[in-house]
Each structure stands twice: as C-alpha cells, then as structure tokens.
Amino acid sequence: MGFVDGFVIIYQLGICCIYIEFVAINIKQVMDQYWEPLDISIHMLTFLLSLILMNYIKNLMLLAPFSTVANLITFVGLGFTVKLQNR
C-alpha cells in the first residue's frame, strides 16, 4: 500500500508543479503587455502564495461567494468569446 501511495504523491506533486508553471506563464504573457516584464519565478511565487493562503481556509462556506463571482466572470468571458466568434 505504501508503494502505491508514494507514486500517487509523486504524481500529484508533478501535476501541481506543472499547473503552477502553466498558470504563471499565461499570467506573465498578459502582464508583460501592460507592465514592466518580471521574471517568471516572481509570477510562480505569487501564484503559489495565493494557493497556499487559499488552503488555510478551513470553512468552505467562506469560499462560496468567491466561487460564485468566479463562475459569473467565467460565464461573462464565455459570452464575450461566443459573441466575438459569431461576429
């Protein structure tokens, strides 16, 4: 059982590292258009710190309003994308 658990932990750690890098690269591309370019490690550190702070929230009911706002922003963005595609 410990062998499988070890591989699952290594797999999850790898996925999390790639996720942080992927998001940081995309944020860097957007930020470089509007502000002075920063190193990718700064963007990765900023994103990692925000993930760590979110994991300190013990009561998930506190996240519900933020989740609702995030869902609304996602749907608005999807609406803009569909509108631009059909133009």
Main pleated-sheet profile: none
Helical content stands at over 70%
In terms of structural class, how would the helical and strand content be classed? mainly alpha
Radius of gyration: 17 Å
- Regions with little confidence, pLDDT below 50 for 5+ residues: none
β-sheet strand percentage: under 5%
Helix count equals: 3
Shape label: extended
N→C terminal distance: 56 Å
Number of strands: 0
Quaternary state of this entry equals single chain
Q: What would the average pLDDT be, to the nearest integer?
A: 90
Note the run of SSEs as H and E.
HHH
Can you summarize this structure?
By secondary structure, the chain is an all-alpha fold. It is built from three helices and no strands.
Describe the structure.
This protein has 87 residues and is an all-alpha fold. Helix content is 82%, strand content 0%. Helix 1 crosses helix 2. It is extended, with a radius of gyration of 17 Å. It starts with a helix and ends with a helix. The model has no long low-confidence stretch (mean pLDDT 90). Keywords: Membrane, Transmembrane, Transmembrane helix. This is Amino acid transporter transmembrane domain-containing protein.
Keywords for this entry:
extended; 3 helices; 87 residues
Write the layout of secondary structure elements.
Elements: H1 2-34, H2 40-55, H3 64-85
Helix pairs in contact: 1-2
Transmembrane segments: 6-25, 37-57, 63-82
Subcellular location: Membrane
Organism: Cardiocondyla obscurior
